[in-house]
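Re: the request from the purification team.
They wanted to know what the chain is likely to look like in 3D before they choose a buffer screen. I agreed to run a prediction and write the result into the notebook, where they can find it.
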Amino acid sequence: MTVEFVSRPDVTRADAGLVGAGTWDVGTPERGRRAVEAVRAAWRARPWPHPGLLSYSVYAGEDGRTLFHYAQWTAGQSYQDFVREGRDERNAEIDAAVPGIERLGPHTYELYRSSSPGGAEPGCVVVVDVEFDGADKARQRDWVDGVFEALGTDPAPAPGGLAGHFHVSTDGRRVLNYAEWVSAQAHIDALAAPGDGIGSRTPQWERVRTYPGVTGGGVRRYTPVLSLRPGEGG
């Protein structure tokens, strides 16, 4: 199969059983641009690596030094096959073009709930990481369900949010929200609104913010720059 370049992945596609997500620290905006072009060249020069890989997307961080990577797989075995047989060759070519990339992660996830199937093209993807103090798959899902209850009862939801796609890690320790926004400014404005970040001052949001066992996390804004999927030819 050949490689097809598209605008963005279909995050809610039903055949995606596993998601791999991780971050590259490239240091500077210029190195980030060079790394994206190296990724494009490395993938364009080769056939699609595995039928179980459904899409592979890259996002440039607003901080100027990070790239977020999001890959959809049919199942864990497909991902392991690629790690064993196809990843190193591509990464070696990228590292030759941009030496010194620090790769953080990746972690593997399953999509649990989405607030909307999306539709409109996002100008910004906000990646929200939540970390827990131990492995507990029921707790992951309970935290996400709490967010949905808070969203559904919020008297003044933030404008500009298109969709939130909540992923639970396969090791039971993390939640990742891939949130689509119309623009970075819309998210900045939502954070600056009265209250404690996204969400009104309600009991439901307070439960989310004070949920026991949450030990860390972070929020980062990204711009979609590259999305690939298998093409029809080849």
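For the purification team: The chain has a mean pLDDT of 92.
Please add any questions underneath this entry.
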